[in-house]
Amino acid sequence: MEPVLKLANVSLAYHTPQAETLAIKNLDFTVNEGEFVAIVGPSGCGKSTLLSMVAGLLPPEEGQIFLRGMPIDGVSTDVGYMLQRDHLFEWRTILQNVLLGLDVRGKTKEGKDHAIELLKKYELYEFRNFRPSHLSGGMRQRER
Predict the structure, then answer these.
(1) What pTM value is reported for the model?
(2) Taking the CB of residue 131, how many other CB atoms lie within 10 A of it?
(3) From 3.40.50.720, 3.40.50.300, 2.40.400.10, 3.40.190.150, which CATH number describes the 5-71 domain?
(4) pLDDT(120) > 90
């Protein structure tokens, strides 16, 4: 069976005129269907960089990343992750923040019912018309 996610010899460094900071070097791993994977490590070890590469936000300098057998080449709508700090728009309601990705892709109408069901599932439906500042930290993390 083909893995859901495969990283093959992935490396990435951040470059400035003064220095190069190696974030990830020669990383290989796979994630199979139904597996639960945790990425742990100290601050600055490359966890967020790894997630950004898997989401297609950063290309690896070396190696390749595959999602269901297809190379990740740019941003994918099939991958998302929650940043350490949410980036909710205060001028949008909770429901509007949830619908943002669909709004950008012009698919709000098709996805609104599903978004409402997710808000109910995560016990945020009663807050759908509130602004993010009215949510607790944990609620803000659930919201995306």
Answers:
(1) 0.63
(2) 16
(3) 3.40.50.300
(4) yes
